[in-house]
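#help-structures
NK: newbie question, is this the right format to request a structure? protein is SCP2 sterol-binding domain-containing protein
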Amino acid sequence: MAGTTVEDCRAALERLSASMGAAQGDLRKAASLDRSLSCEITDLDTTFTGRLRDGRIQDIRAVAGPPPGKAQIRLAMSGDDLRALVDGRLNFAKAWASGRVKVHASLPDLLRLRSLL
């Protein structure tokens, strides 16, 4: 999967947003956060920012470099890992425990995020 682009990462976040929006039951409840979000793509020197609201990721924007501010939920990973997480080929808990995915969030938000990825 070498050669992941900024556009590939944006598409992965859009797919994640769509699947969150279609979630039912407990997953729907987990997706109902209202939090600022940043996802730093470390190998592309790009950060996506947005807002988790109404069960979706809204207002997704790409900015060059590290996160411009402190979002309530901050993620950092490679573009390949983002795509693998969204596509279900990478387990979030294992990726987080091994350091492939870095997360800065409150404990309740972290637990909810874990159920979504």
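mod (FA): yep, format's fine, and the tokens are attached above. The chain has one domain: 6-116.
NK: thank you!
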